[in-house]
Design goal:
single chain; 354 residues; 8 helices; 2 domains; two-stranded antiparallel sheet; mainly alpha; 5 strands
Length: 354
């Protein structure tokens, strides 16, 4: 069932679109990052045959590249663009410039979290206007600004954690590729050096001659493969971050309107828990939303804990809170003005009217 008569449905669709856009931006950026890091690595000499020891002691050319410093600038540019994907221009000037130069602004809206929050507020105003024929009350602009700042501060912390994981995975992948390169060189040089000694060469000459056979650059195909694997592994973490940020931003906007405009402590203020993807409602949200006969349950606002209260809790510990109730939750609270009711089909109408 889709609640086409409720503006909340359009909002739920927008949340889906925001997540899709954010993931499209991720895929675009990661393709570019893998390509650019491979180019950077191909320019680096990884083995130095002229630094070999003067006697035979089994040593061979060694990796002497600091991937952290070589890759850092390139990685940071892409991470900044990812941050802009979530936070928009609030991510800072460098992030905005990175998003522009890397083409992200052509893929997604500037900041999926602020977009979800602001659209949730607009949805409530549109809803009330649709029911009453009067303009929906708006939140104070200063309050909206402060809330955005606070929300983005939280987003920034979680985003930092995710981006640090991605950076570490990329650097680890590069180091692994370099180690394989070095190991292959070791085997090749040892084999050729021993062959030279067997042919009568001195240990020093045999080692020096063998070292010249070892490739001095990282095999790009190996690095590309490992970087792609790191990016794909992190994609699940990024998907979860985007979904959480968008849902919590939406829940924050919805709750704020109900609290500031409708009156959270007013016993006459009732809301219905509506699963906007009703056919996909989980076995926790389903019973929370409807009674056995299919009618909607109604709640007072003071019965809900703040949005996000169930995040980090085990499922058996979930409790009633402002949606989202859990990761990937697409439920919303639908405000019922005094004198209105909600039908089993999700139609909000004047009570008793058919």
């Amino acid at each position: 069932m889709k609640f086409a008569k409720l503006p909340h449905q359009d909002h739920a669709d927008l949340l889906d679109d925001l997540e899709t856009m954010a993931m499209d931006a991720y895929d675009l950026l990661m393709r570019g990052l893998v390509k650019d890091l491979t180019k950077v690595a191909k320019k680096q000499k990884l083995a130095k045959s002229d630094d070999l020891p003067r006697g035979w002691n089994g040593e061979v050319p060694r990796i002497e590249v600091d991937f952290n410093s070589i890759f850092q600038r390139t990685i940071q540019k892409y991470l900044d663009a990812l941050r802009w994907t979530i936070m928009g221009d609030a991510a800072g000037k460098e992030a905005t410039q990175a998003a522009i130069s890397l083409g992200v602004r052509d893929v997604t809206l500037p900041g999926v979290a602020p977009a979800a929050y602001l659209d949730a507020i607009d949805t409530q105003a549109e809803y009330v206007a649709k029911l009453t024929g009067k303009s929906g009350a708006q939140l104070d602009k200063e309050l909206v600004g402060k809330t955005l700042d606070k929300m983005l501060e939280t987003n920034d912390r979680f985003t930092d954690e995710s981006l640090l994981k991605l950076q570490n995975r990329l650097l680890s992948a590069a180091e692994m590729a370099a180690q394989r390169h070095n190991a292959a060189n070791t085997a090749l040089v040892h084999e050729e050096a021993h062959a030279g000694i067997a042919d009568g060469e001195s240990k020093k000459d045999a080692l020096a001659a063998a070292a010249k056979l070892a490739p001095d650059r990282l095999a790009a195909i190996d690095l590309t493969r490992d970087l792609k694997k790191a990016v794909e592994t992190h994609r699940t973490d990024w998907t979860r971050l985007i979904s959480t940020d968008v849902a919590l931003a939406s829940g924050t906007g919805t709750h704020q309107v109900m609290q500031e405009v409708y009156g959270a402590k007013d016993d006459t203020v009732m809301v219905a828990w509506v699963a906007m993807r009703d056919e996909k409602a989980c076995d926790w949200c389903g019973p929370t939303s409807r009674r056995a006969d299919g009618s909607f349950k109604l709640y007072r606002m003071d019965e809900f804990l703040p949005t996000g209260s169930n995040y980090g809790r085990k499922r058996k510990e979930w409790t009633l809170c402002i949606p989202p109730a859990h990761p990937n939750c697409r439920c919303s609270l639908v405000y019922l003005p005094p004198g209105f009711e909600i039908t089993k089909d999700g139609d909000v109408r004047v009570r008793g009217k058919k």
